[in-house]
Amino acid sequence: MTVEAQATALEVEGLCKSFRAVQALDHVDLTLRYGEVTALLGDNGAGKSTFVKCVAGVYAPDTGRMRVDGVETSIANPDAARELGIETVHQTLAVIDTLDVAENLFLNREHTRGGPIGAWLGVLDKKRMRIETAHILERLGIRIPSLRRPMGALSGGQRQAVAIGRATAWGRQIVMLDEPAAALGVEQAARVLELILNLREGGAAVLLITHNMDRVSEVCDRAVVLRQGRKTAEVAVGDVTTDDLVAYITGAKTQRTRP
Amino acid sequence: MVYAAAALIFGLFAVVLRDDGFVTASNLLNIGRQAAPIAVMAVGMAFALGAAEIDLSVGSVAALSSLVVADAVGSFGFAAGVAITLAVGAGIGAVNGFIAVKVRIPSFLVTLGTLGIVSGVARNLNNLQSLPIRNDVYLNVFGAGSLGPISSLLIWTVVIGAVGHLALHQLRWGRHVLAVGADRSAAAALGIRTDRIRITALIASAAAASLAGMLLAGRLAIGRHDLGENLLLTVIAAVVIGGTNLFGGRASVAGAIAGSIVMAMLNNGLILMGLRVADQLIARGVIIILAVALSMREQKEA
Ligand SMILES: Nc1ncnc2c1ncn2[C@@H]1O[C@H](COP(=O)(O)OP(=O)(O)OP(=O)(O)O)[C@@H](O)[C@H]1O
Ligand SMILES: [Mg+2]
């Protein structure tokens, strides 16, 4: 795969985040471009999920700058991230087990009915949300036996599929997926990869966190490697072997990222 | 389940207490009147529990409200008096919620503290004396009055039940309450303002308790420092028997009301059985623990 010069979607510069004594992110720079899938790699505890949460507005970074479409922004909360067109599948999925599929898919972006008063009160348009849920799942090729079942009654893979569906259904331009294929069966995992490729085709900027190197070579254009909160490598996936990537992840090999 | 329990208890008492007048129109009406304040508090509590909070101050808020409304209706008239009382109740809920959320103290402890403070204030307010209520409009709307053949207490139960049911199932707020109660960090990751949801759930609970206090005051035509004070356990039991999860994420308003009727029947039946107050307390405690244990086991399986 060749890396062409694509328009920049998200630029993160010098992102730092610590939890008491642990510096989870230490001056991390990362750029996502439209029409490109970037892998974010690293061992357990490297800081990948923390990075995603900072960009998604879940954590407030200690320092660092973010630009979306070249405009400096601070992402104060998850709504702000969504408004900027950033969708996230968190490692924990962030689904509510006691709510059903449609309720989860539309959680905090519910359709309301009854005009302005209905919107102000937040009167739910359940029918519309249920119909749209069926369409979304069908379009994404996600099969769920019943949309009325609570999420907790679904299999791990189905839950993950719904979480991915929630992030990818809205035609958003920046999508971050934290280990989205981890609990998926062969067929569902293949669908997720297909979904990611569709997103790229549609011009989206995708960040994919995974521990599976085959997936990296299958769908990613670039790879950024974190190690103990620091960025240790940034490479074009076509230029390296998976052994190289593993060596960066384990620290056997390092690359000077900033001259 | 709660409906089956209600039917079972009703049947049991109907047989056992057939000579003591359990199934007479006047006694059933009495049960309904007893159930009303419990039910109103239970609806509010369903939101607090649904959001994975708990409000232990409801009994004391009801008691304080009975005094406040007696005083305020006397001084400022019906509408202003009721509004002031509701505002006091909601205000206590807001303080509960604010401290729980911003100072990060579990609502269990915050409201236990509030319970003490509010009880103390209620005792100081009129030196342990009851305050009579002479406002006819008030006594009609909140007490002995009726709309046609239907007692106003019953109407309040139905209205609050309907409002609560709609808020829980038809409004975004209700759905967010359950989401926050089921998994606060997941809800936060989706951008739900979990602080706001938790605070408003505790406001709902306290406001409902305040209304319940007004109903108690209306029924007896007085405000007193201990009206409803001992209803806390009864209310929590009613809500949990009704299918609300004690640890959040699931709530039922209809169940809470059915649970309240179960609790009112229990109280009534135990009295009719001629148990002494001390024995009533013991029997009620045992039954509540059994009933809650049963319904929690059933919830786990569901
Ligand atoms: N909320 C938190 N409080 C305290 N420490 C945290 C918190 N979140 C993450 N950390 C710490 O920050 C570091 C980075 O964690 P992070 O979850 O970002 O790793 P990761 O790269 O996603 O790992 P994995 O591959 O296992 O998912 C770890 O040392 C972790 O213990
Ligand atoms: Mg992680």
If strands are numbered along the chain, what order do they take across the biggest sheet of chain A?
Answer: 6-7-8-3-9-10
Which CATH top level class of the domain at 3-97 and 172-250 in chain A fits? Alpha Beta
Distance between the termini of chain B: 12 Å
Gross morphology of chain B: globular
What is the helix tally of chain A? 9
Ligand roster: adenosine-5'-triphosphate, magnesium ion
Radius of gyration of chain A: 19 Å
Quote the average pLDDT of chain A. Answer: 90
The oligomeric state is heterodimer
Portion in helices of chain A: 25-40%
Describe the structure.
The complex is a heterodimer of chains A (259) and B (302). By secondary structure, chain A is α/β, with parallel strands linked by helices. Chain A has a domain of 174 residues: P-loop containing nucleotide triphosphate hydrolases (Rossmann fold), CATH 3.40.50. Chain A is 33% helix and 25% strand. In chain A, the strands form two sheets. In chain A, strands 6-7-8-3-9-10 form a six-stranded mixed sheet, with helices on both faces. In chain A, helix 6 runs parallel beside helix 7. The mean pLDDT of chain A is 90. Chain B has one domain: ABC transporter involved in vitamin B12 uptake, BtuC (Orthogonal Bundle). A two-stranded antiparallel ribbon of chain B has the order 1-4. In chain B, strands 2-3 form a two-stranded antiparallel sheet. In chain B, helix 2 crosses helix 11, helix 3 packs across helix 10 and helix 4 runs antiparallel to helix 10. With 302 residues, chain B is an all-alpha fold. The chains are: A alpha/beta (259), B mainly alpha (302). Chains A and B meet through helix 2 of A and helix 8 and helix 9 of B. The complex binds adenosine-5'-triphosphate (ATP) and magnesium ion. Adenosine-5'-triphosphate binds next to strand 2 and helix 1 of chain A.
